[in-house]
Automatic annotation (TrEMBL):
Monomer. It comes from Ferrimonas lipolytica. One of its GO terms (biological process) is methylation. The gene is rlmM. This is Ribosomal RNA large subunit methyltransferase M. It is found in: Cytoplasm.
């Protein structure tokens, strides 16, 4: 129980590995990551026999920016008989907790696509075997542990589990969202996913409901504004470009042709600030700090565009810079950040002003 497997976006394995190694070290868990470039997963192996369990119990999944999902490895499966993989898996069933769900997974990189297709097919007979043995509940239960079988190829893989209260609720950490046909751009999916990842349903009802005022910096053509309008908010759209006519026709959007870095809010009771500007990440972080310090918003979701190199370092520096500025100004806050499925060379950050 000294290994943890983490899913990430293909191409970001090094960032995911650096992050889990740093956070593990803070808990005095020391080890090394195994990385396969463009695979979409990382394995962290601790030197202590219980290091995987310690990480799953003491490290919050929400602290991980680059990991989409994770689980503790209980057994490494090698050279399975491809005619009877179920028996090979069930040999280790005594290690598994009573669980409510089974996920058969693989990497997300291009070379794993055919394997993922097999994973979906293999889930059905393996689930039946686990239910018959009593490892799985007869019906799916999303509040119980989840069993993970991760295949690296047709005969090898890792078996383990994750806790439902400390991990992603989505298969391989990916929430599949449907693109709204009337949205101005596909960027709308990033904000839709961000609301789902960062806020519980109860928090969304409390913090993001109809009638609230919001500001969108760098709004055009309106992909992010669309999500606020859909939730019944009234939006100041700040951009020198053109907004989608469909949004302007709602009567919920006022467009101001102003540079997002120079704009000051028209209203003083804005609940939300959103920002998806293509700009240096440290400059965006400073702008967000300014809005909170001046009392211009209570909640913010924004993207930080990442450089080609030192991406993990840049993320850490920007988040520390933002948090330090808010603490120095006496702004009580919480910050969450995640490399979302719909993000590419960027991460998404949520900041909430605490009372």
């Amino acid at each position: 129980m000294n290994k943890v497997l983490l899913h990430c976006r293909p191409g970001f394995e090094k960032e995911c590995a650096a992050e889990i190694q740093d956070l593990a070290a803070e808990l005095e868990v020391f080890g090394f990551p195994r990385v396969i470039n463009n695979s979409g997963f990382v394995i962290f192996e601790g030197y202590g026999p219980e290091d995987g369990r310690i990480l799953m119990e003491q490290l919050s999944f929400n602290q991980l920016v680059f990991a989409r999902s994770w689980f503790m490895v209980l057994a490494e499966l090698k050279d399975m008989d491809t005619e009877d993989r179920i028996s090979a898996v069930m040999e280790h069933s005594e290690l598994l907790p009573k669980a409510g769900m089974l996920w058969v997974e693989s990497g997300e990189g291009d070379e794993y696509r055919s394997l993922l297709s097999f994973c979906r097919k293999f889930t059905v007979p393996l689930r039946q075997a686990m239910r018959s043995s009593g490892v799985l509940t007869k019906k799916e239960h999303d509040k119980m542990p989840r069993i993970h079988l991760f295949l690296t190829d047709s005969g090898n893989g890792y078996l383990g589990y994750s806790r439902s209260d400390n991990g992603s609720p989505f298969y391989m950490g990916i929430e599949r969202l449907k693109f709204p046909s009337d949205a101005p751009s596909r960027s709308t999916l990033k904000l839709d996913e961000a609301f789902s990842v960062f806020l519980t349903k109860e928090e969304q009802e409390e913090r993001a409901h109809s009638g609230m005022k919001a500001v969108d910096l760098g709004a055009c053509p309106g992909g992010w504004t669309y999500q606020l309008v859909r939730r019944g908010m009234f939006v100041e759209a700040i951009d020198n470009g053109e907004m989608a006519p469909s949004l302007m026709e709602t009567g919920q959007v006022k467009h101001y042709s102003v540079d997002g870095f120079k704009h000051e809010p028209i209203h003083t009771n804005n609940r939300w600030l959103i920002c998806d500007m293509v700009e240096k990440p440290d400059r965006v972080a400073s702008l967000m700090a300014r809005w909170f310090i001046n009392g211009w918003c209570h909640d913010a979701i924004f993207n930080l565009k990442l450089p080609m190199k030192q991406r993990y370092t840049m993320v850490s520096d920007c988040l520390n810079q933002l948090s330090s500025a808010l603490r120095h100004a006496g702004v009580r806050h919480e910050i969450k950040a995640k490399h979302l499925y719909h993000d590419r060379e960027e991460i998404t950050v949520y900041v909430h002003r605490r009372k």
